Amino acid sequence: MLRTFVSGEGEIPSSGLVSDYLAELHFRISHLSGGAVASYIPELAKADPKLCGIAIATIDGKTYSAGDADVEFTIQSVSKPFVYGYALERHGREAILQRVGVEPTGEAFNSIVLDEVHNRPFNPMVNAGAIAIAETIKGATPAERAQNMLTLFSRLAGRRLSIDEQVYRSELETGHRNRAIAYMMLNSGMIRRAPEDILDVYFRQCAVRVTARDLAVMAATLANDGVNPLSGERVIATEYVSDILTVMNTCGMYNYAGQWSYDVGIPAKSGVAGSILAVIPGQLGIAVFSPPIDQHGNSVRGVAACKEIAQDFRLNIF
Ligand code: DON
């Protein structure tokens, strides 16, 4: 049975106890070792591996946190589900499905493979799919597209966000694998504009600075059917929230998605700067940030924390 986190069986009855629970969980997971800080984007290698923050935001607008929940880092792939939602809203399901599928790959997030039947990226959570989706960001110039993208994330977080220029430049200078993926998709007709143009907004999108608390609010926006519970603003149309959650569930943790579903059982998305965002629909959003990642690109402490929370409150939706 699905227990509710904030009410009902298995409840944590008061704000104080939620905070105490998170403090204890934080104490346990912040001592875990294993994994390594991402270094294929040189600027990310400078991250402090000891950082560890957990945050929860409920659909009635309460936030709870422990540890380094207000330290900024770059959102990286956790941006992908949100731009996917934006693209669906702008162009509709059919048009987007022509360009990006909804099948898990069982491959790494940066794999250079397209679905050979349709010649399109497998899903919007791997780099290929996310680059194709980034083409849908509105704007006549790179500056306008960057601004529109940043506005989307600011509305999701409920505060004005900014881009980490150093991380953006670092990926712009070294992201040749993503460049190869973009050119391959230009060849197959899955993108139409100049690859460098699309990569520019994709690299900026990955370099948006957020905190674990921001990600918890973004997750709670998905849990709340697209309305940011802090600002009350609708950011994602209700009809596309289930599309987003479905691909997060099947593809959000890359080639660990099956095991994640088995162990944790809630839709989630990870990013190589060390964050994981997870959604309990109709209840709350969870975010964990800790830079060391495993071989799949998922935060080691983030996975451990989500496993514990899911077990403690029987959140597995299956
Ligand atoms: O495109 C990239 O490689 C990065 N900007 C984002 C990758 C990422 O976060 C994958 N997540 N685990």
UniProtKB/TrEMBL annotation:
<feature type="binding site">
    <location>
        <position position="171"/>
    </location>
    <ligand>
        <name>substrate</name>
    </ligand>
</feature>
<feature type="binding site">
    <location>
        <position position="202"/>
    </location>
    <ligand>
        <name>substrate</name>
    </ligand>
</feature>
<protein>
    <recommendedName>
        <fullName>Glutaminase</fullName>
        <ecNumber>3.5.1.2</ecNumber>
    </recommendedName>
</protein>
<feature type="binding site">
    <location>
        <position position="77"/>
    </location>
    <ligand>
        <name>substrate</name>
    </ligand>
</feature>
<comment type="subunit">
    <text>Homotetramer.</text>
</comment>
<dbReference type="GO" id="GO:0006537">
    <property type="term" value="P:glutamate biosynthetic process"/>
</dbReference>
<dbReference type="GO" id="GO:0006543">
    <property type="term" value="P:L-glutamine catabolic process"/>
</dbReference>
<feature type="binding site">
    <location>
        <position position="178"/>
    </location>
    <ligand>
        <name>substrate</name>
    </ligand>
</feature>
<feature type="binding site">
    <location>
        <position position="127"/>
    </location>
    <ligand>
        <name>substrate</name>
    </ligand>
</feature>
<feature type="binding site">
    <location>
        <position position="254"/>
    </location>
    <ligand>
        <name>substrate</name>
    </ligand>
</feature>
<dbReference type="GO" id="GO:0004359">
    <property type="term" value="F:glutaminase activity"/>
</dbReference>
<keyword id="KW-0378">Hydrolase</keyword>
<keyword id="KW-0007">Acetylation</keyword>
<feature type="binding site">
    <location>
        <position position="272"/>
    </location>
    <ligand>
        <name>substrate</name>
    </ligand>
</feature>
<comment type="similarity">
    <text>Belongs to the glutaminase family.</text>
</comment>
